[in-house]
Predict the structure.
Amino acid sequence: MADNIIKLTAAEIAEKIASGELTAVEVTEAHLARIEAVDEKVHAFLHVDREGALAQARAVDAKRAAGEKLGPLAGVPLALKDIFTTKGVPTTVGSKILEGWIPPYDATLTRKLKEADVVILGKTNMDEFAMGSSTENSAYGPTGNPWDLTRIPGGSGGGSSAALAAYEAPLAIGTDTGGSIRQPAAVTATVGVKPTYGGVSRYGMVAFSSSLDQGGPCARTVLDAALLHEVIAGHDPLDSTSIDAPVPPVVEAARNGSVAGMRVGVVKQFRGEHYQAGVMQRFDESVELLKELGAEIVELDCPSFDLALAAYYLIAPSECSSNLARFDAMRYGLRVGDDGTRSAEDVTALTREAGFGPEVKRRIMLGTYALSSGYYDAYYGSAQKVRTLITQDFEKAFDQVDVIVSPTTPTTAFPIGERADDPMAMYLADLCTIPTNLAGNAAMSLPCGLAPEDGLPVGLQIIAPAMKDDRLYKVGAAVEAAFVQRWGHPLLEEAPSL
Amino acid sequence: MSFTELLSYDAALAQYDPVMGLEVHVELGTKTKMFCGCSTELGAEPNSQTCPTCLGLPGSLPVVNAVGVESAIKIGLALNCEIAEWCRFARKNYFYPDMPKNFQTSQYDEPIAFNGYLDVQLEDGEVFRVEIERAHMEEDTGKSTHVGGATGRIHGASHSLLDYNRAGIPLIEIVTKPIVGAGERAPEVAKAYVAELRELIKALGVSEARMEMGQMRCDVNLSLMPKGAEKFGTRSETKNVNSLRSVERAARYEIQRHAAVLQSGGTIVQETRHFHEDDGSTTSGRVKEEAEDYRYFPEPDLVPVAPSREWVEELRATLPELPRVRRNRLREEWGIGEFDMQSILNAGAVDLIVATIEAGADSAAARKWWMGELARNANEQGKGLDELAITPADVARVAALVAEGSLNDKLARQVLEGVLAGEGSPDEVVEKRGLKVVSDEGALGAAVDEAIAGNAAIADKIRGGKVAAVGALVGAVMKTTRGQADAARVKELILEKLGVSE
Amino acid sequence: MPGITREEVAHLARLARLELADEELEHFAGQLDDIIGAVARVAEVADRDVPPTSHPLPLTNVMRADEVRPSLTPEQALSGAPAQEQQRFKVPQILGED
Ligand SMILES: [Mg+2]
Ligand SMILES: [Zn+2]
């Protein structure tokens, strides 16, 4: 029974709880048992909140017993990326500098999950401060990819993607600054969505790069992602960059997948020497599939996309150098070297040296450099202009097409350790995902097959204009259905059992 | 404190022209902080008015206080500034434990208000125009208490304690363009500018601008250039000069210090300096090895502020009369000189007198009570006039009682004293203390008869023509009526009864 | 402007309050040089007449009413403090301007 429960989709679990076929406690216990059984190997979780989860589940069951109306995801377990504050539950952002910190407040997203009666199982592993594409930069050790535990589960949200792929949770939350939801989804054969910037509140989401960061849903199916999207999205007066408009009809779109009559763009810049052959093969097949499903394919030229990675690696480090300045050993978190003789300045510097990992330091240094006087115009200023040009390229593209498709990431999951001290090689993982963060529009990754050369999952990225997140789900649901029909089962079922 | 050589003020001004720049920070009187909903109420327990945002907790975000923006625009308009059609907040990055995020959310190259001026009037009536470079929005820092060193000084302290209640309170920073051409009057101009600015801020109702409470703080930048030169000299920045008198003294001291250094062939170091209230001197701040690099960039957590022209015009329409213009008008209406007006201004009595007049008193009476009895009382208590437990309406009522003859001056002072002591309204004090001029002719007549009977010899003298002796009988009557009689009426009655005319 | 020196890295580390060890300075100098060399390409557009984008969405004038919201309790505010005294955050001596 427990084994059957963990394979259910979120939509199925919610339905069974609502009908009384399952209790929320049963569902939660099944997932806690699964975590117990496999997480030692996978290491998706940094913190499992067993008691909190069971309490939430009991509350859902009590509500149902009392005849109260349950929300569409009531009682469904979820793995929360350890970047969102949770009142009374540790939040580390994958960093030693926040080890043991217990936030006195809930993020807006956390609050919304609780209000929707979603059961939060615990906090998932991530690259420190969301900086990375492999989860190797976590101060608490790497996470394994359930497809091959010696390989990376993507990053920064590798804990969330691995939890889904290992059936430790049917839903998860990620954050996407340069691809940290989509790339992990791609390499684990799960679904991840970066909503339009401003679609999901950032209040209580520990900032990496404020103008790029966006929280979003992760799931094993397009519909589950849509159900979660609807729960976490919406205007938040505590976030000045939150969009004050109705949430796009994502669930409706996911229930009515179709690409018939749609124009789908293929950008010529998303192709080239850095792309693995098997990835491009699966991508090209996906484009063929879209044609078969009735879409019209349009070739697009977005020349400024070639500068996206460079602009991103100026903007994100610049903003992070400022956002991470607050970790100074004065008010919370780690304090090192306070022997009663050292100055606050020295204690801050010693603490940051001890508390931040190499990638975080590298980006802080890079950002400090890019913002310093004399370099600002050439670096930060130019990067902001590139941002404008990329936005303009997207605008022109979306004059011609409804959505754009590309591979999510140029390669399949690479072995843990392979790119660990080669930042430039690591940064290539986000080649296709970054333009969307710079422009602020929406994108999804969903599985489109296994690369023939290594048998590892490949992700298809769908990109929609800002505020048209529903198109992702409409197209995604159609593609997902066609692939599942072709394969005879969801791709994840081909993963080796743990 | 090391000995610093100074040149005499006259000698300094004979050789050099001072150039000043004044930076004033004003704490707004909003209910909540600039970027969060925490209260700004003073006197709260430490760290009881903090939240994730103003503590800089991970994940927290700022949201702009609309009244903060409105106040900034009002200040800009009153300073004759242009108001930006579109501007942004910026992060000023530097580490300091009193600043929770280690960046100050401020404005950089896009201030909300810019290019204005403020006309200030010197004590002799001369008007001097101070050009305004910009006024921008930012936030205050927390408050540190230094422990273990000498008298709470940061130097030599073993550690510090931080209270973030003040962190995030809205500040408006107002920066002048270089003030040139003031010559020997530069210190006076500096003082008059800060005084005028304070009046303006108060008139706008955006802050109480109490310098003694740190609600308004001034940095004085000063440099000298040889007379007739056009290129400015190197400047010093004297920080946190927090009273009107100190502004004048700091400018004067720096003129003399710069002059002494320059005259002896030395060069001025560009540095921050600290002002010392005790002797009016300044001393060098920490020598910085490297120029500050604040790495300003647009605050990505806030969206641009684009005040619509309609809003700006609406706010312009609400601006009150400028304090200087108003003061000159009142001075003429009240028929007093510059000097008296200046005293009233310095006492913080302008608005109180106006309100008292509006409540029905005549201007002479209003001035008399506020600048006399009440000013004395405030002085004794070390309070501001507006902190006294008496309202302009109370004062106006007392003036009315005097005018109708119900009170004389002596009784009026007792009534004021009673009101200040919390005994109630003027009428209640009169009632409770029984402080009414005895005008009941019967009672008064009896008292007069008694006085005549008890002082027969004096009465005879008066009858005999020595009218000047009447004072003794008046005194006797006043004594029996405990001062509550109208002395003039008493005199009349006595003379009447004795059949004598003056 | 690649060609970042060890001294420059040391200066950046001071600005960023990172007490980098000597080997780290060396290592970062090389890596930053590589990264900056790669990202310096953005300067290609420095002369292009396009406005810089600091915010991905064209929002303006997001403001809140001046209304008091509940604060944290002092206990909550201080709950993460590495050290505290008299209901205040206790921090090491501040080398101030005095
Ligand atoms: Mg300032
Ligand atoms: Zn606050």
